[in-house]
Amino acid sequence: MNVVKIPGQVGGALLRETSLRSPLGLPVVMTLALALGIASVAVQGFVFGVFNNVYHIPFVLRLPRDPLFASDPFYQSLRFYASGVWVVLRSIASERNVEALFLACHIASRVMTFLAILVALRSMGMRTPLAMVFGGVAVLAWPMIYGYSPVGQHGEFTPYFDHTELTWPAVILTLVCLQRRWLLGAAVLVGVSLCINLFVGVWMSAVLLWAIVSSRNLFSKRMVVASLGASFLVASPVLVWSLRALGSSGQDPVSVSFREYVRAFWPYHFLIGSAAKVQVVRVAIIFGAAGVCLQQLGLKVWRDAIGVLAGVFAVGAVLPYVLDNRVVFNLHLLRVDGVALFMLPIAAAALAWHDLSGAKVGDRVRGLALAAALFGGWPLAALAGVVVLPRATRRTRIALVLAGAFLTVGLAAHLWPAMQVVDPVRGASALLPVAALVAWPVLKASQRQQMACVLLLLAIVFVAVGWEVSVRVAASAGLVLIVMAVSARHEAALAGPAVAMATLAVAVIGVISFVGEGTLEKARQYEVSVSAPQIEWNQLLAWVRQHRTEVRGPVLVPLASFGPAPRRDFQLWARVPVWVDWSQGAAVMWYPPFFDTWYPRYVEVRALRAPNEFVAYARSRGLSYYVGIGAPCGKGSLPAVVEGEFALCRVGS
């Protein structure tokens, strides 16, 4: 096995050289990043004007200056909303180009992210065309990278343009710079992160400071001071903005603690007690899997970064319950699990490739298992594949096959009616942990203990996820183990074409994951539907926007949504003020006094049910219009316009 020391690697990691072809040049890498970025956007789709865009679009279009919103407390609070991205875009955005501008920025951010990923993979020893394509496609095909992190709900790849997604290139390249001992570059990139998203920059500042402290005088004091000064200089515009906003936006709301506000609005970013236990376990697995992969690769800087981020997460799990302070909550410490989640497929792809390129079939089997788990999207599979499967002996592989046969034959009769044709293969890629966990007792225990461990494992899976998924896990494990057995039996014959065969197998699994219920379904879960209610709602918004000077607002809009898809925000799309909406509650994060306006209105409107209740409430608050859903306008009101099940009702005096 040939090994090569990665240039600039702190800690001197040793990785296998993958020399199937000459290394890729920068133009080819950039072209590959462009293809991967566009492909990921095409897979996930793009939506505009939903989710957090209800804060971004009014800011860049300067809607608070519109005379209709002069007295709207929600839009007026946006003057305290700080991100360098939106300040820059505000100078070029207009009503005509804003959607195209957001789409262009969305694609650009995705392309830059994949370029940073490819640079990271090169720094991990993956320099050949096949290696780079494998690593890029592995990240592209990983289902868990689409959507949000398990506990902190941090956005990974989201279907709409958000400034947080622009931090990924800076985060990844910060680690690459630290790995190559370029402290100044890493510090500047941390400053860029602070400019884009303040709390992400704070997390990465912790990583940077740890790298400096743990470097054992690797960096001179002059270099440290210069680098930190450069970081502060780059971040200074947003830091100054934030400090001024913190001082001028008022104190925490006096009517309730900030912790209670978070509980009422959206506790998942902030309070670990609001997360399901299984999600907390998944976060632990994510940190563990990423740490083990990076330890196997010998990437000290990346491994230490995972440790620092895990520490930040641990602090975030405790601190909000100890300090009820606005600053603590604005650091979004639990969302750091999203960075670990993003680092995991990069590390797993690099480790899988180096194993697939190994000289021994045991290495290639581990690489295949890890790559299959990566495409399937379960961090648990990645962790188990790394820890348990390396360099298994022939006797162990035979035991694995027997265990897999026991699981498969015993449960196959219950399996097929509950599954589609593609599920067993996709399950084989996604549910490898059963195979790995069965392998572990085989290594150390007696036959009776092995059987007890298998039954205990099945019982745990059954209790955790139910019978149907338990069956899927068992059968999928059997398929993986059969593949391992074939590899073990024909070790000599597979020595030559092992890399090609393994890559082909992983590619097939990835395609099936896309076609079946894997990546494609995960990526498209936030797609805006074109159902009849959505169309009717959009038509109502269009009518109100055409008559906005007549309607003026505020309009009383029910808080209830309809269907699983996101609906367009009334205030943003109709361009008239809304009395209250759930999404407005986020403004308390940057303007705490708004709580005393938002929360009483929110509680009152949430309790309204019948049309007559809406009419009475609107009349008591001096509101001229309310939106009726699924029922005629209440007594004392007349419809101004009706679109299907939605009506804009004019309230009489």
Largest sheet: 4 strands, mixed
Head-to-tail CA distance between termini: 86 Å
Strand order, main sheet: write it out. 3-4-6-5
Number of helices: 30
Mean pLDDT: 76
Shape call: elongated
Extract low-pLDDT stretches.
1-22, 378-392, 395-445, 468-518
Report strand %.
under 5%
Cα Rg: 27 Å
**Number of β-strand runs:** 6
Structural class by SSE content: mainly alpha
Q: How many domains, in number, for the residues?
A: 3
Helix content: 55-70%
Short structural description:
With 653 residues, the protein is mostly helical.
What can you tell me about this protein's structure?
- The chain is mostly helical.
- It has three domains: 3-347, no CATH class; 358-523, no CATH class; 532-651.
- The chain has helices at 26-44, 53-60, 73-77, 84-90, 98-123, 129-141, 167-179, 183-196, 198-213, 221-248, 258-265, 277-297, 300-322, 326-330, 337-356, 361-376, 379-388, 394-415, 423-430, 433-444, 447-465, 467-489, 498-515, 519-523, 532-546, 548-551, 570-574, 587-590, 595-606, 611-620; strands spanning 3-5, 14-16, 555-556, 625-629, 637-643, 646-651.
- The strands form two sheets. The chain has a four-stranded mixed sheet.
- Helix 8 runs parallel beside helix 10 (221-248), helix 9 (198-213) packs across helix 13 (300-322) and helix 18 runs antiparallel to helix 22 (467-489).
- It is elongated and about 80 Å long.
- The model is unreliable at 1-22, 378-392, 395-445 and 468-518 (pLDDT under 50).
